[in-house]
Amino acid sequence: MTLKKEREGEKLTVYIDGKLDAVTSPEFEKELEDLSGIKELVLDLKDLLYTSSSGLRVFLNLLKIMDGQGSMTVRNVNEDVYDIFRETGFLKILDIEY
Question: CA 49, CA 21: separation in Å to the nearest integer?
């Protein structure tokens, strides 16, 4: 998994490439542990191939953080990851932009 972060003022866009699983999720979480000053978090999942329950847990934690200080949007979700979000109920809690 690789991450690319772009910050524009209070907006942070994170591009995630690869797989989020038990091995890579801790790195993903560590990269985003300091969101101070961020009011808008955008997660671009165009190149995310898969997420396990470990990755879903990180998405949930990020959503909780951003609910307290701004907004979180998920965009460019591919079909496989979309199916995982649908099957786990994450479609109901995530703001997904197509």
Answer: 11
One-letter amino acid for residue 66 of the chain: M
Measured from the Cβ of residue 42, the count of other Cβ atoms closer than 10 Å reads: 18
- 58-81 average pLDDT score: 96
| C-alpha dist (Å) from residue 78 to 9, 38, 66, 68, 91 | 28, 26, 23, 28, 13
Task: Give the tens place of pLDDT for each residue, 13-57.
Answer: 999 999 999 999 999 999 999 999 999 999 999 999 999 999 999
Q: Which domains does the chain have, with CATH numbers?
A: 2-97 (3.30.750.24)
| C-beta separation of 35 from 12 below 8 A | yes
Partners of 19 in the β-ladder: 50
Run of H or E including 62: helix 53-69
Confidence of residue 95 (pLDDT cuts 50, 70, 90): very high
| Residue 38: strand, helix, or coil | coil
